[in-house]
Design goal:
heterodimer, A: alpha/beta, Rossmann fold, four-stranded antiparallel β-sheet, 10 helices, 33% helix, globular, B: mainly alpha, ABC transporter involved in vitamin B12 uptake, BtuC, two-stranded antiparallel ribbon, 4 strands, 2% strand
């Protein structure tokens, strides 16, 4: 069994004010893993990802990055190993696409932060990988939602991390670009990168993830292979009634579809 | 790959701004209610040939121009950094309540007849103003410290509230004092650069230089912060550390500027936007360029202020708004087309 890049053990978090809390949750990421974190809105997916990335300090449990406690590492050290893409990125400053991708090199730079030849090559490679070369002189604010997502993904990949944590990277993307993003993630995983992706799209998780973590109301309810987790019984237990699952005739993976009579039987999960 | 900031482009752009600054600094002292002869001034470099023109140049005009340049530069750099840290394009140095504290300190000092004395390089008005600025800075910093670091929303709200509280306290002082003291208070509130000699300028440097140094040292990280706190953390920025250093640097630099020149508005707001339109949004260029352009802008505004209604002077704050507003609008619309 290969070494662990990221080990999240029994992390928990309680928000002050609203009383919502994430129950202790654990997972491990090894080179080549693609782990999907799924669950209804408000189930704690993003909180778990933030704890794993060290963006939120865990109140219980530990996060170890390459066997080192993440709390003892500086942010630059973390960023050289772990890439984190948050759910929402807004800016009132009009950076160009290539400037944003180049920002991914921050943790590798010293002094004035000027890019060397290697940094330039990495930036060019990331622009090509995410199909955004033609956009490189455009400003982020002038891009469509799908183009923005690919730019931000390229910026995180430019960190050259060993593990990627992505919070809903395919939001606002059409089906073609959703598949393209996951194709890129598979490509990176095949080169040895570990990937953790929060997604609402159960079918993409089914096709591309080897393992899924299913959360409900701040607790990990199920974990395992998509074919074991994406069953009618489990999904209706978490999301409510009105879902059907079937096996895709080509991929052999589960496919989740809304049932025709779903509205009448829905229990109103968050 | 074109478009990214290289060392060569950085040097070229900053050199251009520096040349502009030097030209303004060299020309501005020669103009005023009394035009000076360049040869007479240059002759004064030999001590035996000092003339009246040289005395006006070196004792009155040059310190004033230098003060204007330093104050304008400091306010613009502070504005440029705060707009990123507070994620608010309308942020400027006085949003932190520092100007309110400085104004209250100055008004209290002016409210006591006969209290206007000099202690070292500063007058009591400047010292009280400085104390007011630093008190407000510490209060805001303390209010905004949360369990996860500095809360930017709290800082904005606390700054606005402290400005309102200081405004109310100023009104109370004005209501209680003798009416003939109100003129001096109003004059201070309008901002001005009328200094004599270099003592005040040297006195502000211990606060101004480290403050600006802190801000410029964070320029590269500020680029990341402009994409939001979470993205910056993901890219490897110690966000809480950058926020603290920017707040401290802004507080020190703007307190030094306000204590000497009063609350001169508009510079800290418009110059950073103008620089971003003119030479890009990379803050490694934006902050030093803000210092040069902000300094040159306030120097020119002061030149206008002391010549337009010669032999009297107009408060420079009026000129910064009247000159800066249309210029900024032109740059804005040019960028949008």
């Amino acid at each position: 069994m290969s070494r662990e890049i990221l080990s999240v053990q029994s992390v928990a978090y309680a928000y002050t004010g609203n009383g919502w809390r994430l129950q202790p949750a654990s997972f491990v990421v090894r080179p080549g893993d693609i782990l999907g974190i799924i669950g209804p809105n408000g189930s704690g997916k993003s909180t778990l990802l933030k704890l794993a990335a060290g963006v939120l300090p865990s109140q219980k449990g530990t996060v170890r990055l390459l066997e080192q406690d993440i709390r003892r590492l500086k942010r630059r050290e973390i960023a050289r190993t772990l890439g984190y893409l948050p759910q929402r990125v807004e800016s009132h400053v009009g950076y160009t696409v290539q400037e944003i991708v180049a920002m991914g090199r921050f943790a590798h730079l010293r002094g004035g932060g000027f890019l060397c030849t290697h940094d330039m090559e990495v930036v060019s490679r990331c622009l090509e990988l995410t199909d955004i070369v033609p956009l490189r002189q455009r400003r982020l604010s002038r891009l469509s939602g799908g183009e923005r997502q690919r730019v931000l993904l390229a910026s995180v990949i430019a960190q050259e991390p060993q593990v990627l944590l992505l919070d809903e990277p395919t939001t606002a993307l059409d089906i073609h670009h959703q598949m393209r993003v996951f194709d890129i993630l598979v490509e990176l995983a095949q080169k040895g990168m570990g990937v953790v992706v929060v997604t609402h799209d159960l079918n993409l998780a089914s096709v591309f993830c080897e393992q899924v973590l299913l959360l409900q109301e701040g607790a990990v309810m199920h974990r395992g292979k998509p074919e074991d987790i994406l069953t009618k019984e489990i999904l209706e237990d978490v999301y409510g009634n009105g879902l059907e699952t079937m096996i895709h005739p080509i991929t052999g993976r589960p496919v989740v579809v809304p049932a025709a009579s779903g509205r009448s039987g829905q229990t109103g999960a968050s | 790959m074109s478009g990214l900031l290289t060392r060569g482009r950085f040097v070229r752009v900053i050199t251009a701004y520096a040349v502009l600054s030097v030209i303004v600094l060299c020309i501005a002292p020669f103009f005023g209610s009394e035009s000076l002869d360049v040869r007479e001034v240059l002759n004064a470099l030999s001590p035996q040939r000092a003339s009246m023109d040289a005395k006006i140049f070196f004792s009155l005009r040059l310190p004033r121009v230098l003060l204007g340049f330093l104050v304008g530069g400091a306010l613009a750099v502070c504005g440029g950094a705060l707009q990123v840290v507070l994620a608010n394009p309308l942020a400027e140095p006085f949003i932190l309540g520092i100007a309110g504290g400085g104004a209250l300190g100055a008004v209290i000092a002016l409210s006591v007849p006969g209290f206007l004395v000099h202690l070292g390089p500063f007058s009591t008005v400047q010292l009280f103003s400085l104390a007011g600025c630093l008190f407000c800075l510490l209060a805001i910093y303390r209010f905004s410290m949360g369990p996860l670091g500095v809360s930017m929303t709290t800082i904005l709200l606390a700054g606005v509230t402290i400005n309102i509280l200081c405004g109310a306290a100023i009104l109370l002082v004005r209501y209680l004092v003798s009416p003939h003291l109100l003129v001096a208070m109003d004059r201070w509130m309008m901002g001005g650069l009328d200094v004599v000699g270099y003592r005040e300028i040297l006195g502000m440097l211990p606060l101004l230089v480290p403050g600006l140094g802190l801000l410029v040292s964070q320029a590269h990280a500020l680029n990341q912060l402009a994409l939001g706190q979470e993205m910056a953390l993901g890219h490897g920025v110690n966000v809480a550390g950058v926020q603290k250093q920017v707040l401290l640097g802004t507080g020190m630099a703007s307190a030094a500027a306000v204590a000497l020149a009063g609350p001169i508005g508009f510079v800290g707001l418009i110059i950073p936007h103008a620089v971003r339109r003119l030479s890009g949004v990379d803050h490694r260029i934006v902050l030093p360029a803000c210092f040069c352009l902000g300094g040159a802008f306030l120097t020119i505004c002061d030149l206008v202020a002391r010549t337009i209604v010669s032999p009297t002077e107009m408060p420079v704050g009026i000129i910064t708004a009247m000159v800066g507003g249309p210029v900024f609008l032109k740059i804005l619309f040019k960028g949008l087309r």
